[in-house]
Amino acid sequence: MTSSVTAPHGTEKGLHRRELDNGLRVLLVPDPAAPVVGVAVHVDVGFRSEPEGRTGFAHLFEHLMFQGSESLEKLAHFRHVQSSGGVFNGSTHQDYTNYFEVLPSAALERALFLEADRLRAPKLTAENLRNQVDVVKEEIRLNVLNRPYGGFPWILLPPVLYDTYPNAHNGYGDFTDLEQADLDDAAAFFDAYYAPGNAVLTVVGDLDPDETAALVEKHFGDIPARPVPSRPSFAEPAPDGERRDAVTDAHAPLPALALGYRLPDPGADLHGYLAHAVLASLLTDGEAARLTQRLVYGDELVTDVSASCGLMGAPLDARDPDTFTITAVHPGDVDPQRITAAVDDELTRLATDGPDAEELRRVTARWASSLHREHDRLMSRMLALGAAELVQGRAELADELPGLLAAVEPAAVADAAGRLRPDARAVLTVTPGGAA
Amino acid sequence: MTSTSTRRGADEIGSTPAGPRPLPPLGPQRSVPAPEEVDTVLDSGLRVIAVRRAEVPMVELRLRVPFADTSGREESDHAAVAEVLATTILSGTASRGRVAVDDELAGVGGELGFSVDPERLTVSGHALADGTDTLLAVLADLLLSATHPDDELARERARLVERIELAFAQPSVIARRALQERRYGAHPVTREMPRPEEVTRVTADAVRALQASALQPGGSVLVLVGDLDPADAVSRVERALAGWTGGRAAELPALPALTARDLLLVDRPGAVQSQLRLSAPAVGRTDPRYAALQLANLALGGYFSSRLVENLREDKGYTYHASSSLELDPHGAVLVVETDVASEVTAPALLETRYELGRLAVVPPTADEVESARRYLVGSLLISMTTQAGYASTVAALAAHGLSSSWVREHPARIEAVTADEVAAAAAEFFAPTAFTGVVVADAARAGYGLRALGGVETP
After folding, report:
1. Least C-beta-crowded within 10 Å: which of A176, A419, B216, B271?
2. Which ranges carry the Peptidase M16 N-terminal domain (chain B) (predicted)?
3. What domains are there in chain B, each with its CATH number?
């Protein structure tokens, strides 16, 4: 059974990496802490790759992948995972889509079977498509349209900072686009992007690597290889000025502001990128953080302020280009110009003087602690490993992150602060308005 | 779309020459030994539970102090004062300023968060394991000598007002408030979030007085889970909190019995989505019917593979989310059935929800439905206990009900022992539509007609 499985070539930290003949990349990570296992498939397509006129399609397609496959009627996937004692989910990101379950270890083979069946032969039907368009529209109403600050900033900021369709469009989708999606779109999308060679399978938990490798081969090995799409570059020039836009939010009680900056390419400059992750913490994590001190307690300009390295809130979740964001909610009588001026002032101060070593040590201790907690949860560690393998090319990065962040020097943080320039950013203001 | 050598139709994609394959059976399941634990009550009356779970070098902390409003007054300011207290307690102590508190915690990768609800004050925290003493020292300092400085309090009060205004703009919060008032009238339990004008009136003196009178160790519980030695951890707690003595913390009085009533339509003009919230009496963990009730609840809407989700979401496409859950409080329990649906299907969704409640009561879950729910309940319980944080939260929640971790270790056996007849009996007893009350938050101009046509809804 294992004859067509290539020998592992990366085994540090108990991480076994293989590739099947059909191109599926496989990560096997034994973790005997608890008698549970996790299985995740990360596919190398996210909402940046969806076609023009089909905004929201990558996410809609994620829903369709739960609707049945050759061996599984509609609803069977959910029922088999849950009646094995497991939990499941999927999510669509800028550059990838993941599908996963965590179950008692007795259900390992069953979970592999379930993932293999839909990667081999999903049952795409017009009825399920229409049903899931309705479900997705309710998801968007719940998370965006019927609440204050829905889609802020992840949907609202990109069209201000970026020019090209992949980077700028709404990844949740416009209702008109979702309603026009048809079965041919779904079939073409699956054939183009869901080739086994375009995916990473991650299996983590109470498992034996050799036995699991054999089970992986048994269930995934006969999925025929298909051409792997060439991955387009989403690169576009950095903004050559300050770009501004304003929106009104019918549900928002207070105005809000989002600043967007381009991050360094993590593939080309990982350390420069990680300095921005540390910078985000220095700015807004905790009471003593620079922007919290200045904007909330010092000048009393904002109610809350938050900085994030990565549009979706976590570092290293996307390839280049990705976004550094600073968001704030503020009282109506505060001119947003005062907020941006204070942000610029604090960034200039950091760029000139750098953080002090003790301040930096506290930030990296908090990072280490939060990563330990995240990795204590098998589901989180599995998803971090799979995403790191697919997006950054190295699963090990997920485990190495605390050390890499702790090694970021004050000068690198100062340099990162210096790159967040007013003449190369997006500024989005949100004004309460309309009937609530 | 990217070029590809294949151009298959959906039909071709969905089948292979080999055809459908059989579902693999489940393998053997390894069981886990109980972790090392000490569960004891200190002289102060504080119950301390320390559990060794050393997967990562962290310690999780939970502290629950009963914190009920005992004034008996309908116009009580307790909820507002308690909310301000939980916000400003981190603003500094006699020996540490606000920034020093946070810096000291950050130095050990630590965090402490305070929150209040009508029942209790909860502290959730964690730190790198070698920072446990620092975490406990900061906690003790906050409990014993938070000063709630006037200037910090004034600013935090203003921020809190803004956050509450934001929360009250959330449909889920509006629906929750309306449900609580529909269920419990003016009982203190309805005051989960004070109104902005109540917060504005809170004085520093009132906050300091509440801290002095209500933050008591007697009846409170502190849980530590992580890379620790349990007996040693208890001694560290005893040393760090030696100064925390006094009386008993105030328990929430028993809730009024829930009575069945028409649903109340709460108008939210312009809403594109409606919130349905239905509630009925239930029973808690120590009741012999509890495990059967859990299984019946799962079959209705307690997980994805349930009647409500398969009907309202996967068949009708009315909603992204529909669920049924048990809310447990120290005196009892209630069922809450909830979904958020598009405005135009508000009445149809209520019709289907009532249909599923009635069907559960009179067409009992099948053997397959019971088995599926049983496996899910046992498995998800196992998974929820695999993290330090999950373990700590579960043990703290059990302790608030006077239970210990042995309850959760013994619960799988209780779940396995439930018969299909017991599930059917629980379904009939607790899920009859006539047992429910609740609210519908919707644009009355769009949803009112359909709801009036269905009946059982009090419309404006």
Report:
1. A176
2. 73-196
3. 37-240 (3.30.830.10), 263-458 (3.30.830.10)
b (16+ CB within 10 A) / e for B433-448 = bebbbbbbbbbbebbb
Distance of alpha carbon A227 from its chain centroid, rounded?
25
Q: Are A257 and A353 in a shared domain?
A: yes
Residue type, A13: K
Number of Cβ within a 10 Å radius of residue B331: 13
Cα–Cα distance, A68 to A192 (Å, whole number): 19
* Within-domain flag for A250: yes
Tell me, yes or no, whether A404 lies in a domain.
yes
Determine the 3-state secondary structure of A239 from DSSP.
coil
For residues A185 and A251, state if they share a domain.
Answer: no
Residue that the structure tokens 């070539």 belong to? A9
pLDDT along chain B (460 residues), means of 10: 64 95 94 93 98 96 96 90 97 94 96 96 98 98 97 92 89 95 91 94 97 97 98 98 95 90 95 96 95 98 95 94 93 93 96 98 96 95 94 95 93 97 98 97 96 94
| Among A189, A220, A251, residue at a domain's last position | A220
Dihedral angle at the C-alpha atoms of B231, B233, B239, B243, nearest 10 degrees? -110
Question: What is the number of domains present in chain A?
Answer: 2
* Distance, CA of A188 to CA of B3 (rounded, Å): 9
Residue A332, min C-alpha distance to chain B (Å)? 11
On whether any CB of chain A is under 8 Å from the CB of B154, the answer is: no
- Model confidence at A146, in pLDDT bands (50, 70, 90)? confident
Six token digits for residue A46: 């996210």
Q: Are residues A68 and A37 in the same domain?
A: yes
Which residues on chain B are in Cβ contact (under 8 Å) with A35? Answer: 29-32, 382
> DSSP states of A12-38 as a string?
GGG-EEEE-TT--EEEEEE-TTSSEEE
Same domain, A254 and A291: yes
Query: Is A67 part of any domain?
Result: yes
